[in-house]
Design brief:
Glutamine Phosphoribosylpyrophosphate, subunit 1, domain 1, Rossmann fold, alpha+beta, 620 residues
Length: 620
C-alpha cells in the first residue's frame, strides 16, 4: 500500500502551491517510505508516497498513459494485473512499467469510469484528466484501502489519511458530533462519516468525480445478497467445498504476487490457520514467515497452543511477539494518532506490535484472515439470531421497533445492541452541550446503510451485510487493519475478500454458512485435512486485549490527569461527574481482559481526549 493526497481549486482562480502538497505527503511517510512523486499544474495537485512492493525499481507515480493526458496516483494492489496487462497489450496499449497500477490508466482509456468492473484488488485511486481538468476518486468494493476528502470553500482536498487533509491551510479542525456518536453506538465509524467535521470517507465501492464546481458521488458496487429463497440451490455439498477451495487458493496465489517477501499473521484461530494452509498448498516452495502475538502474563487470552499446532504443520519460520500488557498504555498515543479515532478496546496496540515485528524481520507484506467472520457467519450474533428465531417472536418496545425501522428498514432486523435504549445510555456520559447538539440529528436519525440491500434477505445475510458495512470496512479494515499495519509501513492483503470468493459466498444458501448452530460451516468443511481438528473444533475466540480496568491498575499519572474532571470539563464533550463515577467503578472492577460484552466508556473517553490533544482540537 501507499499514501496518496491532493487538492484542486474549484473556482479555477488559484494556482496550487507545491509546498502544501509536500506538507500533506510528509504526514504520510509511514505509508510510503520508499519514494515520493507529485504533479502540480494550474489549480491541481496530486501526489503519493510509495511503499515499493511490485516493480520496486520502476512504477514511480504519478503514472501517465501514452499521450500523458491521464495522470494516476494509487494506493493498493491490482491482483489480476498480469492478466489485464496481456489483454490490454493485445488491444494495442503500450506499457512503460512492470507494475500493477499502470493497467488502471489503460483500462480507463478503454472503459472510462466503469473500468472498476475489471479490477480484482484493493485500491484507492485518484485519476486526473489533464485536458478537461476532471478528477476521479475510487475506493475498492470492500473498503480495504482508505480514502478521505473534504471541500473547504472553493478547495477540494483528498488523502489516504485525514491528518494529511488537515495540513491544507483551508482545513478546519473540529469534531463531528454525529461521527462521535457513531463510534460510541456502532462497532465503529460508518462511511461517509468521520470523526472530523466536514471531512468525509469515500464509501467502499464508490467513485467521486469532480468536474469544474460539480462534485458527484455514486456507487459502482455493493454487496447484493439474493432475496430470501432465491439463493443458489446446492445439490452436491462436496462440489461446493471444492469450488470454494479452488477460488480461495487462486485468491491466495494472486496475493503472493510481489517482488518482496510475503508473510502471514497467525492468530491460532480457524481463519488465519486455513489461510496459512492454503499458502502451503498453492506455493509449497514459498518461504513462509508467520507472526503471532502471545500474552505470557495472561493465560486467559493466550492462544499459543493453537499457534504452535499450526506452525508445526506449516514448517514456517515463526516469530512470536511476547506482548507485555504494560506496553498498552505506552502505545495509546501513537495508536490514536494513526487510528484517527477513539476506541473501545485496546487490541489495536497488539496489531501495532505485529506490524513492527514484520517490518523488523524484513517482511513488508502480510496476509490476514479478515472477512471470514462477516462472510461466513462467524460471530456469536449469528447464533443468537438463530436461537431467537427458534424461540419465536421477539418482544420489542415501541422505541426499539422504531429505531430498527429507521436504521435497517424493518423492526424484524436485529443487530448488536438495543438501539431503542441507546440515547438513554448516551445521556449518562455525554455533556449537556454535546447532547443538545445531537437533538436535531444523531446517528440513529436516519439509515446508515442502503436498506434495500437488507430487506427481503435471509437473516444470516442481513446480519452479514450489516457486519460488512458497520464493522468491517471502516473499523476492522480501517482503524484496526490498514492504519495499524501502516504504522510500520506494512501492506495487508486479505484473500477472503477476493472478488471471486466474495461473489461465490454471496450466492450460497445461508445453511452453508450457519448450519444449525455451527458457524462458518463451509470453511470448516474445507479445512478438513488442511487444518488440525483441534483448531477446526475450537470455539470462536475473538482477538482480545485488556481494557480500562487494567490501564487504571498501572497507576500512571498521565491517565488520571487525562481523565480528570477539570480536563473533561474543559474539553466539553463528556460529563465530568459521570466519567469520575465510571473511573471509580473501573478501579474497583477485576483486572482482566475486556470481553467486548460492554462498552468500555472510560477507554473511549481516554482515547478521545488523546485524539483532541494529538490533533490540536481545543474542545466542543
Amino acid at each position: 500500500m501507499c499514501g496518496i493526497a491532493g487538492f484542486m481549486d474549484l473556482s479555477g482562480q488559484v494556482s496550487a502551491d507545491p509546498g502544501v502538497l509536500s506538507r500533506m505527503l510528509q504526514t504520510l511517510i509511514h505509508r510510503g517510505p520508499d519514494a515520493q512523486g507529485t504533479l502540480v499544474e494550474g489549480g491541481r495537485a496530486i501526489g503519493m508516497r510509495r511503499l515499493s512492493i511490485i516493480d520496486p525499481g520502476g512504477s514511480e507515480q504519478p503514472l501517465y498513459n501514452e499521450d500523458q493526458s491521464l495522470a494516476l496516483v494509487g494506493n493498493g494492489e491490482i491482483y489480476n494485473y498480469i492478466e489485464l496487462r496481456e489483454q490490454l497489450t493485445a488491444r494495442g496499449h503500450v506499457f512503460r512499467t512492470k507494475g500493477d497500477m499502470e493497467v488502471v490508466l489503460h483500462l480507463f482509456e478503454e472503459f472510462g469510469a466503469d473500468m472498476t468492473e475489471h479490477l480484482n484488488g484493493q485500491f484507492s485511486l485518484a485519476l486526473l484528466d489533464r485536458r478537461s481538468g476532471r478528477l476521479w476518486l475510487f475506493r475498492d468494493p470492500m473498503g480495504i484501502t482508505p480514502l478521505h476528502y473534504a471541500v473547504f470553500g472553493d478547495t477540494l482536498v483528498f488523502a489516504s489519511e485525514i491528518k494529511a487533509i488537515l495540513q491544507h491551510p483551508a482545513a478546519r479542525r473540529a469534531i463531528d458530533p454525529i461521527g462521535l456518536d457513531q463510534v460510541l453506538c456502532f462497532p465503529g465509524l460508518v462511511s461517509p462519516r468521520t470523526l472530523f467535521k466536514d471531512v468525509h470517507s469515500l464509501p467502499a465501492g464508490h467513485r467521486l468525480v469532480v468536474d469544474g464546481t460539480q462534485i458527484t458521488q455514486e456507487a459502482f458496487w455493493d454487496m447484493d445478497y439474493p432475496m430470501q429463497g432465491a439463493e443458489s440451490q446446492v445439490i452436491d455439498e462436496g462440489a461446493v467445498v471444492e469450488q470454494f477451495l479452488g477460488l480461495f487458493d487462486a485468491a491466495v496465489k494472486r496475493r503472493l504476487r510481489a517482488d518482496v517477501p510475503v508473510g502471514l499473521y497467525l492468530s491460532g484461530g480457524l481463519d488465519s490457520s486455513f489461510l496459512a494452509a492454503s499458502v502451503k498448498a498453492v506455493a509449497p516452495e514459498h518461504e513462509l514467515t508467520t507472526f503471532s502475538v502471545v500474552f505470557p502474563e495472561n493465560r486467559a487470552i493466550n492462544e499459543r497452543v493453537y499457534q504452535t499446532l499450526m506452525v508445526r504443520q506449516l514448517g514456517s519460520r515463526h516469530i512470536e511477539i511476547p506482548f507485555e500488557q504494560e506496553r498498552i498504555a505506552d502505545l495509546l498515543h501513537d495508536m490514536v494518532w494513526h487510528s484517527e479515532c477513539p476506541v473501545k478496546e485496546t487490541y489495536n496496540t497488539c496489531t501495532m506490535a505485529m506490524s513492527a515485528a514484520a517490518r523488523a524481520h524484513g517482511i513488508p507484506v502480510v496476509l490476514g484472515g479478515e472477512g471470514a467472520d462477516e462472510l461466513l457467519a462467524g460471530y456469536p450474533g449469528y447464533r443468537f439470531d438463530a436461537f431467537s428465531r427458534q424461540r419465536g417472536l421477539e418482544e420489542l418496545s415501541q422505541e426499539e421497533a422504531f429505531a430498527r425501522e429507521r436504521l435497517w428498514g424493518s423492526s424484524a432486523v436485529r443487530y448488536e445492541r438495543h438501539y431503542g435504549g441507546y440515547r438513554d445510555f448516551r445521556r449518562r456520559f455525554l455533556s449537556r452541550e454535546l447532547e443538545q447538539s445531537l437533538l436535531a440529528e444523531d446517528c440513529l436519525s436516519r439509515p446508515v446503510i442502503d436498506v434495500s440491500k437488507v430487506l427481503g434477505r435471509h437473516p444470516v445475510n442481513q446480519r452479514s451485510y450489516l457486519d460488512i458495512k458497520l464493522r468491517l470496512a471502516d473499523h476492522l479494515l480501517g482503524d484496526h487493519g490498514d492504519r495499524m499495519n501502516m504504522v510500520s509501513s506494512i501492506e495487508g492483503r486479505f484473500p477472503f475478500l477476493d472478488r471471486d470468493v466474495v461473489d461465490l459466498l454471496r450466492r450460497l444458501p445461508p445453511h452453508l454458512k450457519l448450519n444449525g448452530m455451527d458457524e462458518k460451516y463451509l470453511l470448516k468443511q474445507a479445512a478438513v485435512g488442511r487444518v488440525p481438528q483441534a483448531i477446526i473444533k475450537r470455539e470462536k475466540f475473538g482477538f482480545r486485549a485488556p481494557g480500562s480496568s487494567f490501564l487504571l491498575a498501572q497507576n500512571k499519572e498521565w491517565i488520571y490527569d487525562t481523565l480528570s474532571p477539570e480536563r473533561i470539563a474543559r474539553e466539553g464533550f463528556f460529563d465530568p461527574a459521570a466519567i469520575a463515577d465510571e473511573l471509580q467503578r473501573q478501579k474497583n472492577a477485576p483486572v482482566g481482559a475486556n470481553p467486548h460484552a460492554d462498552d468500555d466508556i472510560l477507554l473511549f473517553a481516554l482515547t478521545f481526549s488523546i485524539l483532541l490533544e494529538k490533533f490540536d482540537i481545543k474542545g466542543l
